[in-house]
Amino acid sequence: MSLRVVTSDDWPLWRDLRVAALTDAPHAFRARLADWESGGREQWRARLATPGAHHVVAVRDGRPVGMVRGVPGDGPRSELRSLWVDSEARGAGVGDRLVASVTAWALRSGARTLRLAVVPGNEAALALYLRHGFVAVGAPGEPLADGVTRERVLDKALR
To answer: Helices (H) and strands (E) in the chain — how many of each?
Structure first.
């Protein structure tokens, strides 16, 4: 398995993976497929052109099997977002490699903390993040579609 950093020119690949993620695991993301399904080229290119961001695709046997984003956050904090691994590749260390890639990027970027949010009930993702040193913080996450449930926020100290 290899990791590939992608740019705005790779928007069709990113689009296809993100649509696959939102189709495969809608329960795992705050975003909904309908939010992105009709997105055109410019919407997808803009996503990948976020200044200072790090977009990575995992490739196994020539096929993309996972994705993750690292984005600059407030102050000395970066954020890990949109992690997804294809169901056929789960349990093979793909998620570990994607988390490690964003962690290394955040360190290179000078971040002191790496933050993420996980949807309640996504126990597999939570276990992955806890294994990588993330801990729950008291800050409430963004509300989900029901307007009541909130994401669970986790941080990892980097320095």
So the answer is: 5, 7
Q: Where are the domains of the chain?
A: 2-157
- Type of residue numbered 1: M
CB 54 within 8 A of CB 20: no
The verdict on domain 2-157 having CATH code 3.20.20.70 is: no
Phi then psi for 60, rounded to 5 degrees?
-130, 130
Burial 131-145 (b: 16+ CB within 10 A, else e): ebebeeeeeebeeee
How far, in Å, CA of 118 to CA of 152, rounded? 5
Q: What is the pLDDT of residue 148?
A: 84
pTM: 0.92
pLDDT in tens, 19-69: 999 888 888 877 777 766 666 678 888 889 999 999 999 999 999 999 999
Residue of 33, 110, 32 lying closest to 72 (CA atoms): 110
- What phi-psi label fits residue 123: left (phi over 0), alpha (psi between -120 and 50 degrees) or beta? alpha
